[in-house]
User: Fold Auxin-binding protein 1 from Miscanthus lutarioriparius.
Amino acid sequence: MVRGLPAAGAARGPYLTAVGRGLLLTALVAAAASFLPVAESSCPRDKSLVRDISRMQQSNFGREGFSHITVTGALAHGMKEVEVWLQTFGPGQRTPIHRHSCEEVFIVLKGKGTLLLGSSSLKYPGQPQEIPVFQNTTFSIPVNDPHQVWNSDEHEDLQVLVIISRPPVKMNIDVMNIELYRKIARCAKYLMNY
Amino acid sequence: MVRGLPAAGAARGPYLTAVGRGLLLTALVAAAASFLPVAESSCPRDKSLVRDISRMQQSNFGREGFSHITVTGALAHGMKEVEVWLQTFGPGQRTPIHRHSCEEVFIVLKGKGTLLLGSSSLKYPGQPQEIPVFQNTTFSIPVNDPHQVWNSDEHEDLQVLVIISRPPVKMNIDVMNIELYRKIARCAKYLMNY
Assistant:
């Protein structure tokens, strides 16, 4: 989506105002946000007390090889303090790089993969740590640390239970997608030097 | 523990002051609180990023046929907003009846059992609903509703993942144990009519 922007050339170099640059960045990060597995805003409230997870609605948010179930959530079940997701990543699938100010706990139910974890002290994610995760392990993401969960296995699915505090989740998208960031940087450089 | 109290007769009928009755109740509920699976206060802080759940320390809090693991918690791992437990109940085992002002989510990993759920609108728990739960179901306890999870199966273990908000959990123990409550009521009646 970002690829064609420099060539479009609607706003240029010294003539690109601060407002114009802001709008450009907003459009770019909004495009990236469409990949995020956020809760469905239109889902009906389910007031059942006990719910069978295997019968719950799955979403893939337009991403092949990905499945998301809101086991219990703010919009669907009226939770105010915690939300639980069940997510399955096919071989090679990964979350975007992102961060958030809530607490997040993962429990690996099946498969194995890699946690990529940057530091919140960096404005940009930099070179992340690569930490192997596998069935029956748990890990918590430090608040505001950029991270990515990646099914780095070539054959098996990776299934995780994800617990977040203070739902619905509010992502900080400045580090959502490092590749997108690189493209934004190239794009901005192009525009400023035009 | 409560059984012998009326016979002890240290405080009597019209002579039992409000302070005396308060102390008696405090002692009774403190005795009941010793059955609760709260996090170990002396456990060392584990700073590992990825932890193998199968190697974590189990506790049974002095209760036969019960196992508790703090998968991620306030005291052991510095969590501030969510805490996750893995609990296993042998056949017939159950939690005390209790309630708390935090949110609580259960995910049944193995076995089947019964959720007993009272209403927060009642000063005393009254006759609870009895709701069957089984593998791959989830349920959330409404804030402040008295509840009990019971492995009502005669053969299989019941294993649940428990998620609470705002750790460490603060139990309201006024409905912790309905049987204890009945004993307190009988005890108070005995003392008042002496």
About this structure: The two ends of chain B are 21 Å apart (CA to CA).
